[in-house]
Structures are given as C-alpha cells and as structure tokens.
Amino acid sequence: MLYEINYLDIEENAEYESIISKAIRECFKIENLDSSNLYVNIVLTTPEHIREYNKQYRNIDKETDVLSFPMFEKEELQERKQSEIQDVLGDMVISIPRIKEQAIEYENTFERELSYMVVHSFYHLLGYDHMEEKDKKQMREKEENVLNKLGIKRGENLL
User: Fold this and answer.
1) Residue 159 lies in a domain
2) Does 154 map to a domain?
3) Count of domains in the chain?
C-alpha cells in the first residue's frame, strides 16, 4: 500500500482517488520508494477543517490548499526506505474546494491542480522546501519532472 485516502466532510469520489493514485505512484517510482514499506496518509477535506489544522499545528489562522506533515527528517529516509516494517511517510491534508478554486484561478484543469498539490506535498514529506531560492528551484524541478512524466501540463485541456 502506497497511500490511504480518508475523507473529512467531503463525499468519496472516484475521480479524486484516480488522480491521487497516479500522482502518488509516480512520485514513489521516481524517488525509488515503490518497493519500500512507506505509505502516505491523505485527508481530503473542506476549507474549514484545513483552517483548523493550520491554526492548531502551524499557529496560522487561515485556510490553505494543502498541509504536509512529514514523519521523518530527510536524513532518516534512507534507513526507513529499507525497513521491513510498514510506516507512514507522512500526512497530507488537502482542501478539495480550494483546489477547485485554484484550478480556475490558475487556468489549470482540476486534474493538474490536484496532481500538483499531491506532488508538492509529497516532496515536503521527503524534506524538500521552498523557503530559499536554491531549494525552491530544486523542489520545482522535481515537481515538474513528475507532472511531465504523467503528461500533465499547465493550462491544458480546459473546457
């Protein structure tokens, strides 16, 4: 199992699950984690709930699109990759309504926006960040590589 999806005040949706599955599988494959015993816990929720998480865990009282909660430091991952015990790589909390809004705002498809959020969060779980310009460049390259492998481009296939 590479991931588990949980719904918090949103209806289950096969389209969301299909998009997430493709993105997560490609991330694990590209990062050579597909044979590891690591998995990602994903919570799909509302802006209200993600705001609560943001306030509780980051002390920021506002809604956001995605939150990432890594379980390990970047240096610990090599050891965890080889563990025979199944372990959670980290948690992603994604605001589906916010993703829909951003898809329109950024002139992307919903698939592209949700895929991007999953990939972006995945790299946070691996310890990547975008606070410094050099780190941001490295993270963006990794994100774009995954999306390109999936054949997902910015602003394509809009209705």
Assistant:
1) no
2) no
3) 1
Neighbours of 7 (CB within 10 A): 15
In a domain, 12, yes or no: yes
Categorize the per-residue pLDDT at 79 as very low, low, confident or very high, splitting at 50, 70 and 90: confident
In the 8-state DSSP scheme, what is residue 93? E
Counting beta carbons within 10 angstroms of the beta carbon of residue 148, is it exposed (0 to 12), middle (13 to 18) or buried (19 or more)? exposed
Angle, nearest 10°, between helix axes 14-30 and 133-149? 120
Per-residue DSSP letter, 6: E
Mean pLDDT of the residues in the chain: 92
97 or 72, which is more confident? 97
DSSP string, 27-89: HHHHTT-TTSSEEEEEEEE-HHHHHHHHHHHH---S--SEEEEESS-GGGHHHHHT-SS-EEE
| Paired residues of 145 in beta bridges | none
| CATH code of the domain containing 123 | 3.40.390.30
Residue 47 and residue 99 in contact, taking contact as beta carbons nearer than 8 Å: no
Q: Is residue 132 part of a domain?
A: yes
- Which candidate, 38, 35, 44, 58, places its Cα nearest to that of 16? 44
| pLDDT score for 156 | 52
**What residue has token string 């999936």?**
150
The boundaries of the domain holding residue 72 are 3-149
